[in-house]
Q: What sequence folds into this?
């Protein structure tokens, strides 16, 4: 079975995880949203595509529903120390 899904964000990622469980043998193609992509500090970020990949790959932060499990904010804190971003972005994880 071949299935194509238009996807973007946390809801789509959770839907795809359920689809994967319901139809494990299906050949699933995901057409993901790139309209929210941005490039902070020269790094291209695709939040919706990342969320889908982290969710399906088992690396999502389940509590937030986005981001990687166990990630830190070390880089943000360093950028804040150099005055590149506001200190509010530097919230240490517990």
A:
């Amino acid at each position: 079975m071949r299935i194509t899904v238009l996807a973007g964000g946390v809801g789509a990622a959770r839907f795809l995880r359920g689809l994967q469980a319901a139809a494990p043998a299906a050949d699933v193609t995901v057409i993901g949203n790139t309209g929210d992509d941005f490039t902070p500090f020269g790094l291209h970020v695709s939040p919706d595509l990342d969320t889908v990949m982290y969710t399906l790959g088992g690396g999502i932060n389940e509590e937030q529903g986005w981001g990687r499990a166990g990630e830190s904010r070390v880089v943000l804190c360093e950028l804040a120390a150099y005055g590149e971003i506001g200190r509010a972005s530097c919230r240490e994880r517990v």
